[in-house]
Request: fold
Amino acid sequence: PIYSFGTAHQIILSIRQHNSTIFLSLSTKYKHSTTMNATQQKPMATSAAAPPSLLTQVGMAGSAAVITVTFIHPIDVVKTRIQVSTEYGKMGMGGTAAHVVKNEGISGLWKGVNAAWLREASYTSLRLGLYEPIKVAFGATGSDATFAKKFLAGSAAGALGSLAGNPFDVLKTKLMTSGGKEMPSMMKTAMELYGNQGVQGFYRGIDSNIARAMVLNGTKMGVYDQSKGYV
Reply:
């Protein structure tokens, strides 16, 4: 058949409109499919892990400290004897260690370790475990928290820990400096101390101990916490 120019033009326009409709339909379906796939593949949001409880923080700090002191206690025994005795002071570290092993046996280097365990389980667990809760109470948890607030939080935790650990610190010193091959009894030593000096005997040197703990823990925890912001 023979078509006029006008009829041919209308046919061409109709084909173009039909193709455009098909293209738009396919584009819409593709976009919808892509959106659905992206939605399905997007991982579900998870809530932030809850911070450890106060009991967990204190327990972990105390456990780590007890394990550590078990290995370093012989050095502490030697150091304490050198500090309290001019005789051991003249021997030096090596001579003191050799003298203890010769006269008291190898177990002599672990005299008072049971009191040291109790000291670390009280003092260290509190000075480390209470730092984060006290930091929250002092408002020192933000990225703009000052070093002074962190130092104060560490100092407060150290002071509380020292109050709890001082009785065991006194017992530890007495047990570490006792002579003879027989391992001294912590309970017997505590009863003798209580009988001679009363409760205040367990808190001898408490003011110096608190001052030391405040400076030590305030500096240690404050510097550590502050330095994390630079790495």
